[in-house]
Amino acid sequence: MTLPFLVILPLFGAFSMPIVSLLGKKLKEYWAVIISGATFAVAAKVFYTVWRNNEILLYTLGSDNPIGRGVNFPIRIVWEVDLFGALLALTITFVGFLAIVYSLGYMKHDTGLEKYYTLVLVLELGMLGIVITGDIFNFYVFLEIMSIASYALVAFRNDTWEGIEAGIKYMFVGSLASSFILLGIALLYGQYGTLTMSYLAIKIAENPTLVAKVALAFLIGGLLFKSGAVPVHMWLADAHPAAPSSISAMLDAHPAAPSSISAMLSGLVIKAGGVYAIARIIFSIFNPGLHTYLRTFNAPAINMDVIGWVIVFFACLTLLVGNAMAVVQTDMKRLFAFSSVGQIGYILLGIGIGVLAYGTRAGELALAGAIYHIVNHALIKALLFLVAGVVIHEAGTKNLNELSGLAKRMPLTTFFFIIGAAAIIGLPPLNGFASKWIIYESSAMYNPILAAIAVVGTVFSLAAYTKVLFTFLGKESERVRGSKEPEKSMLLPMLILVVAIIVMGLFPWQISDKIMIPAAKMLEQLNGEYILALLKFIGGA
Amino acid sequence: MGSDMGLIVKTMARATIPLIGIFGAYVISHGHLTPGGGFQGGATIAGAGILFLIAFGINEAKEKINKSLYSALEGLGGLVFLAAGMLGLSVAFFYNTLWHNGPIFNGEPGTLLSAGYLPIMNLAVGLKVYTGLVSAVFAMALFRRWRK
C-alpha cells in the first residue's frame, strides 16, 4: 500500500530537515529535492492505481477496517481517494517538486533556508492531506497545516515591509475563515455524532436539519475565502507579490511572497484548500443527487440548487472582478495574482453548474471542465510566477512601467512567458483551450447568459496579458540592460512546465475522455460510490 | 543587558525550576494513565525554561541554550512520533502493533508499561513541544530592536 507514504514522506523530510541541515551546507537543498521527488513518484503510483482500477481507494488508519468492533459505524479516520483527489495529489507533488528545484537558484541569497524548505515540505504535506482525506476533522487539521505554513512562507522575507504586511493580513483573515470552517464541523459533529465524510452523508440524508444547512453555509463561506473568491480575495492579491515565487505557484498570496512561494500559492493552495474542498463537501457530504431523490418523495431534504446558485453567483463575480482588476495592475506579480482570482472564477462556475445540472450531460461536462481547469491553471500559473521570479531576480523590479524589451536579453524566458500567457487565455494548441472550452460549452448548455459572462472574463484576461507582453517585447529600457538568462536550476523547472503545457495541449480530448470525465463521474457519484466504498465494510449495502 | 531580577527571585527560581521540570516529566510519562500528556507536560517544562530565561536574564540563557541542539531535538521528537506511527505499517499506518504483539509496552492496562506506542508518542510530543516553545520564546527574547 503506497498511499500513507504520500503523507509519511513529506513529514519525514520536514522533521529531518533541522538535523540534515546541521550535517552540511548544501545538503538541505538536495534533501528537499529528493524528498519532494520521491513524493511525486508516490503520487504518480497512487494516481495510476486509482485510474486503472477506476474505483475509490479507501484506507483506514490504525486498523484494516474502519468499522468499530461490536458497532456498525465507522470509528476510525479513513482516507478516501477518488480520481479527483489522486489527480490533485499528482498535480501538487509535480508543481511542488518543480518549485523546490527552482528555489535552489532563486532563494540562494536568502537566509534561514532550512526553515524555508521545512515549510515548503509542510505546505505540500497539508495539501496532500486535504486531497486524500475522508474524515472531516482530519481535513480541518490538514487545512490548518497548509494555511499556517503559507502564512509563514508569505512573510518569509521578513526584512521587507510588504512581506510582513501581506503575511499579517493573510493570517488574520485566514484564521477567521478557518474558524468558520471549524464551527461548521463542530455543528455537524454535534448534530450527527460522526466525522467520517461518507457516513456523515448518510446521516444528513436521514435527517436534514437546519443545523446541517447552517454548517454548510459556514463551510462554504470559509472555503470560498480560502480559494480567493471575489469579496474575500484581497489577501491573495497582497500575499503573492510578497511570497517567494516558488510558493506563489502553490499559494496565491502573490505579490509579497518569494516567487517560488507565489507559484505554489497560486497553483496549488487555493485549489487544494479552496475549490477541491468545496467540491468534496458539496458532492461527498451533501450530495445533490441524494437530496433531489429525497425531494421527489416529499421527504425532508436540503435544496442543493440554492448552493449551486450561490456558487455560480460568486463564480461570475470572481471571474469578472478578478480579470478586470488584472488589467489595471502595474505590478507584475499582482497582475498574475488577480488573474489567478479570475481563473478560480471559471473553476467555481464549473462546480456551480455541476451542482445545478446534476445528473445531466451539462453538469458532468461542467465538472470535468472544472477539474481539467484546476490542473491546467496549476501548471500555467506556476510557470507564469516562475517567469515573474526570473524577471525580479534579474531586473530587480516587478513594476511593468519600468520594464520593457527583455526579449533580447532573455529569449528563453520570453518564450516561456508567451507560452504561459497564450495558454491561460486559451489559445487552441495549448492546454488552457480545452478546459475553458468545456466550461464555456457546458455553461452555454445550461444557461447562455453564464457563458457570455465567462467569455467577457476571458476578454479582460486577454487585455491584461497583452499588457505584460510589452514587458518582454518593445524597446529596451534602462532597467533591463544588465539582465541575462538565469541559471539552469531555474530554467529547467520552467522548461518542464512548458513541455507539460504543450503536450497536454496536443491531446486535449483524449485527456478529457480518459481522465477528466471519469474523475467528474467519480466526484458526482451518481450511484453513491463514495458512500458505498465505506458501506461495503459494514456489509449491509 | 544583565538580569533585572533580584536575589529572592533567583533563589526561588533555583528551587522551583527542578520541581516544575519533574512535574512536567511526570505529566508526560503518565500521559496514558492520568489527565495530561505530551503537550501539557511539554508546555509545563517549557514554563520552567521561561522562568529560567526571566529570572536569570538573556545573557545567562545565551550560554545555556544552543539553537542548533534545540532545533535538532525538535526534529527528533517529530521523527520518533512518525516512527512510532509507522511501526505497524504492515497492517495500517498508526496500527498499535506494540500493544497487540509486544514485545514491550503491552503490560496490564493501568500500569506504566502499557498502551503500546502511546507512551513513546507522548515522550516525542513532549520533547517537541518543550524544545519548540523554548526556542520560540528565546528567539523572541533575543529580538530586541525597540528602535533603530
Automatic annotation (TrEMBL), chain A:
Topological type in the membrane: Multi-pass membrane protein
TM region(s), chain numbering: 6-23, 30-51, 83-104, 116-133, 209-225, 306-328, 335-358, 370-392, 412-429, 449-470, 491-511
Signal sequence region: none
GO CC field: plasma membrane
Subcellular location: Cell membrane
Domain of life: Archaea
Record's keyword annotation contains Repeat: no
Keywords: Cell membrane, Membrane, Transmembrane, Transmembrane helix
InterPro entries assigned to the protein according to its UniProt record, in alphabetical order: CPA3_Na-H_Antiporter_D, ND/Mrp_TM, NiFe-hyd_3_EhaH_prd, Proton_antipo_N
NADH-Ubiquinone oxidoreductase (complex I) chain 5 N-terminal domain ranges (all copies): 72-117
Annotated ranges, domain NADH:quinone oxidoreductase/Mrp antiporter transmembrane: 251-461
PANTHER family, A to Z: NA(+)_H(+) ANTIPORTER SUBUNIT D1 (PTHR42703:SF1), NADH DEHYDROGENASE (PTHR42703)
Name of the protein: Cation:proton antiporter
TrEMBL record, chain B:
Localization (cell): Cell membrane
Pfam families xrefs: MnhB
Domain Na+/H+ antiporter MnhB subunit-related protein: 8-134
Transmembrane region(s): 12-33, 39-58, 70-95, 115-143
UniProt keywords, alphabetically: Cell membrane, Membrane, Transmembrane, Transmembrane helix
GO cellular component labels: plasma membrane
Keyword Membrane on entry: yes
Primary location class: membrane
Cross-referenced InterPro entries: CPA3_antiporter_subunitB (IPR050622), MnhB (IPR007182)
Top-rank taxon, per record: Archaea
Keyword Transmembrane helix: yes
Bilayer topology term: Multi-pass membrane protein
PANTHER family for this protein: NA(+)/H(+) ANTIPORTER SUBUNIT B (PTHR33932), NA(+)_H(+) ANTIPORTER SUBUNIT B (PTHR33932:SF4)
Protein's UniProt name: Cation:proton antiporter
Annotated organism of origin: Thermococcus litoralis (strain ATCC 51850 / DSM 5473 / JCM 8560 / NS-C)
